[in-house]
Amino acid sequence: MSFTGFGVVAGAELTEAVRRAGADHVEPTIAGNLVIQPDGDGGDWALNDLYAGDRFPSFAILVPGDLPLLTAEPTAVRGYFDAVLPIVHSVADPGAKIVFGSGTARTAPDGMPEAEADRRFAEVLRTARDTAVANDLRIVLEPLSRSETNVLNSFAEAVRFLDDAAIDGVDVVADLFHIRNEGESLDVLREHGDRIGHVHVSDRDRLPLGAEGGDDVWRDFLHAVHDGGYRGSVSLECNWSRDTTTAAEREIGRSLELLRRSGAMLVA
């Protein structure tokens, strides 16, 4: 066996295209997509009707950018998770994964020492983890490159952070886009394979797999993840064509085909 399934990170506008393209799963984004504020900013969070009755194994983009996790009142942060995670649970498979990236929300303000930023983010992550567990969900921490945040940029850094803060029950997302941007060796995935909780893959600069201007690093990435012992699901996170839904669907289908071919070549 290589991986348990291949899916696509997508908003509501591409959900049906992803399914028609043959994905094993859709990975909806949460903030402003799966959960919305029908009465505008400041109103209650509610499930987007487009997702009613569905079930998903994983989700992305947990926190909106206008909730500053490191400087907001802890009650506001906890209130967000208390409001949103039960909604996610209502459309989640048992034990579904939530990718905690949310770079803008977790960015430390100018002048905040790194140690203080890490301490505050550790508290936020514990709150998210505990609220997720209470809703039969699982948080996975996504390192994000410096173009998106100044808190936890590499896979190795995320592992050290979790260990130093003694945060258990949280694994790390291996996202090729961020690993490449940080110049991190793929060997880190072999060394810490037991810490991989989810995988995001794309071609260069979030291109669809096999697109013009791309390369084959994504194949090496999948090998490294597999060598590390990860056998869970893999989600494509790419910038799909904005021309038409049909064009995006073609790109998604081609990327899934390449992903499955590559996965089939990996030996358990």
How would you describe this structure to a colleague?
The mean pLDDT is about 95. The longest helix has 21 residues, at about 115-135. It is globular and about 45 Å long. Helices cover about 35% and strands about 20% of the residues. By secondary structure, it is an alpha/beta fold. The protein starts with a strand and ends with a helix. The chain has an 8-stranded parallel sheet with strand order 2-1-10-9-8-7-6-5. Strand 7 (about 135-140), helix 5 (about 155-165) and strand 8 (about 170-175) form a beta-alpha-beta unit.
Structure summary:
The chain has 268 residues and is α/β, with parallel strands linked by helices. It is built from nine helices and ten strands. The longest helix is centred in the middle third of the chain and has 21 residues.
Question: What attributes does this structure have?
Answer:
268 residues; alpha/beta; eight-stranded parallel sheet; two-stranded antiparallel sheet; 9 helices; 18% strand; globular
Write the layout of secondary structure elements.
Layout lengths: L4 E6 L4 H6 L4 E4 L6 E2 L9 E2 L8 E4 L14 H16 L2 E9 L2 H4 L7 H21 L2 E5 L13 H10 L6 E5 H6 L5 H5 L4 E6 L15 H11 L5 E4 L8 H20 L4
Parallel strand pairs: 1-2, 1-10, 5-6, 6-7, 7-8, 8-9, 9-10
Antiparallel strand pairs: 3-4
Helix pairs in contact: 2-4
**Structural Rg:** 18 Å
- Overall morphology: globular
| Count of separate DSSP helical elements | 9
Structural class: alpha/beta
Helix content: 25-40%
The largest sheet, given as strand count, sense and whether it forms a barrel, is: 8 strands, parallel
How many beta-strand elements?
Answer: 10
Low-pLDDT windows of residues? none
Major sheet: order of its strands?
2-1-10-9-8-7-6-5
